[in-house]
Write a structure and sequence with these properties.
By secondary structure, the chain is α/β, with parallel strands linked by helices. The chain contains nine helices and eight strands. The longest helix has 15 residues. Keywords: Methyltransferase, Transferase. This is Class I SAM-dependent methyltransferase. InterPro entries: SAM-dependent_MTases_sf.
């Protein structure tokens, strides 16, 4: 549970802060892949790593990865714990900085084109996430993106919701091949908006069940490798009418993205 200590100026609570190098590689690969256009079209791209945790490694990695898309991108790591901010300062450099704050995004009026918050909101109550979603969305640049996600300790299983100023767009699941028995193994890593909704009658439950059925239906392809079986699984889901927003190029990475309306809470 988060430690319920609050800064008078900052919105949020100090979380456990667990982090590991390369933990967020899957979402970063998505940001530099199908979402790279957001950085390319921005005048002066500002990106926030919100709640980077006890060590700033994920913010440093994000900075390095995004610089392959735009060499002028600026990354700001925001943490509510001033001790963590002070510890990160030695790693600051041109284009990468750290500051204390929370969901209010203390950016002196500047609007980020991307805000990434991973393993942050899952530590809050189910009655809290929507208010924080709205607060961050209101501060995005036009066409900006807020990514609220969760992953396991070393980034093998990840899931994230993508939101624009108008609201949620999609849910992405990204799994490392060989680390799951069924796709629904990702259930324990669903974002806060969905993790308690994986029950009969909810859309996310129906979606994960459909993924599992398609996975079992593609079992004959297992001898050709997990990647081939996963691609067939995703293709079967699309054929069944699920509104998938990506294709084989992403599926081959162990990733699948579905429109939010197909999984949103009832």
């Amino acid at each position: 549970m988060p430690l319920r200590q609050r800064s008078p100026q900052s919105v949020g609570s100090i979380t456990r802060g667990t982090t590991n190098p390369n933990r967020l590689r899957r979402v970063d690969r998505w940001l530099t892949g199908p979402q790279r256009y957001r950085l390319r079209r921005a005048g002066k791209p500002l990106v926030v790593d919100l709640g980077y945790g006890a060590a700033p490694v994920t913010a440093v990695e994000l900075f390095s990865r995004l610089r392959t898309v735009r060499d002028d991108v600026e990354v700001v790591g925001i943490e509510i714990d001033p001790v963590r901010v002070a510890a990160a300062e030695p790693l600051a450099r041109p284009g990468l900085s750290f500051r204390q704050g929370g969901f209010e995004l203390p950016l002196e009026g500047r609007r980020p084109v991307v805000v990434r918050a991973f393993n942050v909101l899952r530590q809050y109550g189910e009655d809290e996430y929507e208010a924080h979603w709205e607060q961050v969305r209101e501060r995005l640049a036009p066409g900006g993106l807020f990514v609220d996600g969760t992953c396991d300790e070393i980034g093998r299983r990840s899931a994230w919701v993508a939101l624009e100023t108008t609201g949620p767009l999609s849910l992405t699941v990204s799994l490392r091949f060989g680390t799951f028995t069924r796709p629904s193994d990702v259930a324990e890593r669903l974002p806060k908006a969905l993790i308690h909704r994986n029950v009969a009658g909810e859309r996310i439950h129906a979606y994960l069940q459909a993924l599992d059925r398609a996975w079992l239906g593609a079992a004959a392809l297992a001898s050709f490798g997990t990647q081939q079986r996963w691609v067939a699984t995703c293709a079967a889901l699309r054929a069944d009418g699920w509104p998938l927003l990506d294709g084989a190029a992403r599926w081959r990475l162990g990733e699948i993205t579905v429109a939010w309306d197909a999984v949103r809470p009832r």
